[in-house]
Write a structure and sequence with these properties.
Elements (H helix, E strand, L loop, with lengths): L33 H18 L3 H5 L9 H16 L5 H14 L3 H13 L2 H4 L10 H13 L5 H8 L6 H11 L3 H14 L20 H19 L6 H6 L2 E4 L4 H4 L10 E4 L12 H6 L8 H12 L24 H8 L3 H15 L13 E2 L2 E2 L3 E5 L5 E5 H10 L2 H16 L10 H11 L4 H13 L22
Antiparallel strand pairs: 1-2, 3-4, 5-6
């Protein structure tokens, strides 16, 4: 991603850290063990080795001498305050700066010790440590981590220092500014990649005897096509969540066009086209997703159904038994994929999960293992009828991706699941930890703002920033002046 702004030199720590916990579906840095502790130590040492040779440049001193000791102390104070995301108290200044400088044999050693002490401090390693209630500095930190996964910028620090993060309106104003930053676009984009499980996707591999047009270049182009669709919706004027599930257009280039039935020149760049009008439904039928949730030779209603159940409807599913293996096509050569899956999972012990999974996945059987539209499977007409029984016991039936998409965009379960997952990804805590009213009020705000994804993120950031206020406080959703969320 190229940005038309100047970026200073950036230091990247190369120390390998142990993987974060992914048990909730999104990365969350909650695990603490010996390997993690050693990695933080190694990273701190690596940072010191970067700073010391550049100390004059970074601190603004002309030479490392006693005459420059005051400037070096100021540099260390600023370093600590940036790391801790708030000004140092007098006690902290004594501990981290004055005492360290007084006990060091020389100024470089003093700086080295300050950096190591700061980077190994819980005040740096954890977002928040101790304290009751929330001040402007805590709010600034929460907002920056929710929206950017980074530290507060200069404007946010200035607002915190001036006491201008004291009201909902002030917090909302800063949030609206922050979502125009490229870092927000990067974070929301990464959420969708993780939400659709594309960060875990294995390399696409298809049987070339069945799909002679498929190769690595096609796989790469399909991924680009999906990324362009994401950008189109996320950065669109309305950022409408429903368009993810309803748009009938695809981004195709000259290499993909003949595979998916678009009339483009062989060297045509990516452009939005409509193919299979009336059949496609946004990401639900996007060729990359359909190819990812499929096997090398056939579709996979099970994998597609699991994606729909977990990601879009927020349903919990037990993992399959270790001994489970799909029936090979050769064992029942006259059956369609739907018939073969139904045959294998019709046992009562399977239906606890497959009674939910299969009817969802079957609705996407109109798309083959490359995500191409089809009406015939193994010389039989494709049956793309599906069904879903809601948590409240209300049944729904649909035929094909379009009807499935229409059901999902109107489903409160879909809205709730999306809010919960976006909240957890952004804040790294469940929305219910923020009070019983946070979720229903976010859901109400989401609908009132025409399911605008960016406005939903604004609301989430405000909820996170004002979390520690009293129970009578209500965090207004930016832009509509009426929505609120409990802390």
């Amino acid at each position: 991603y190229l940005q038309p702004i100047h970026c200073p030199e950036t230091f990247l720590v190369e120390t390998p850290f142990p993987p974060d916990d992914r048990s909730t579906g999104f990365e969350r840095g909650t695990l603490i063990n010996k390997e993690w502790d050693q990695a933080t130590t190694s990273g701190a040492i690596e940072t010191v080795e970067y700073i010391l040779p550049r100390l004059q440049e970074l601190s603004g001193v002309s030479a490392i001498s006693l005459e420059q000791a005051s400037k070096l102390r100021d540099f260390c104070r600023q370093f600590a305050e940036r790391a801790f995301r708030r000004p140092l108290t007098s006690e902290q200044h004594q501990l981290y700066i004055e005492r360290t400088f007084a006990g060091a044999p020389d100024l470089e050693t003093a700086v080295e010790r300050v950096v190591l002490l700061v980077l190994k401090s819980p005040r740096f390693l954890y977002h928040e440590t101790g304290g009751t209630g929330a001040d402007g500095w805590q709010r600034a930190s929460r907002m920056s981590f929710v929206l950017w996964d980074s530290l507060p910028d200069a404007e946010l620090r200035s607002a915190a220092a001036a006491g201008q993060l004291a009201t909902r309106e002030q917090v909302a104003g800063q949030v609206q500014r922050m979502i125009t930053d490229p870092r927000f676009d990067a974070k929301i984009h990464e959420f969708f990649i993780q939400w659709m499980k594309l960060d875990q996707a294995r390399e696409l591999a298809k049987d070339v005897s069945l799909f002679p047009d498929f190769n690595r270049l096609v796989a790469s182009d399909l991924r680009t096509s999906l990324e362009l669709l994401l950008e189109d919706v996320i950065r669109g004027e309305h950022a409408d969540f429903r368009q993810f599930l309803l748009t009938d257009s695809l981004y195709l280039n000259g290499r993909l066009a003949p595979i998916y039935g678009a009339g483009l020149a062989h060297d045509a760049p990516f452009q939005k086209v409509v193919v299979d009008a009336g059949s496609r439904a946004g990401v639900l039928s996007h060729p990359y997703l359909m190819a990812t949730f499929a096997d090398a030779t056939t579709t996979s209603p099970i994998r597609r159904g699991v994606f729909l159940a977990r990601s879009l409807l927020g349903r919990a599913l037990r993992p399959p038994p270790d001994s489970f293996a799909l029936l090979p096509v050769s064992l029942h050569p006259n059956l369609t994929t739907r018939e073969r899956v139904s045959l294998q999972t019709n046992a009562q012990t399977c239906q606890a999960c497959h009674g939910l999974i299969n009817p969802l996945g079957f609705a996407l059987e109109g798309f083959d293992a490359l995500g191409r539209w089809r009406t015939i499977d193994n010389s039989k007409m494709v049956d793309a009828t599906g069904a879903y029984l809601s948590r409240t016991g209300k049944p729904a039936k649909f035929n094909g991706a379009r009807e499935l998409g229409a059901f999902l965009v109107d489903s409160e379960e879909t809205h709730t699941a999306f809010i919960e997952k976006l909240f957890y990804y952004s804040v790294q805590q469940p929305v219910r930890a923020f009070g019983p009213q946070a979720l229903p009020e976010l859901r109400e705000s989401f609908a009132r703002n025409s399911f605008n994804i960016r406005k939903l993120m604004e609301a989430i950031a405000v909820v996170a920033a004002l979390r520690a206020e009293g129970p009578s406080e209500r965090a207004a959703t930016p832009g509509d002046g009426a929505a609120s969320a409990s802390n």
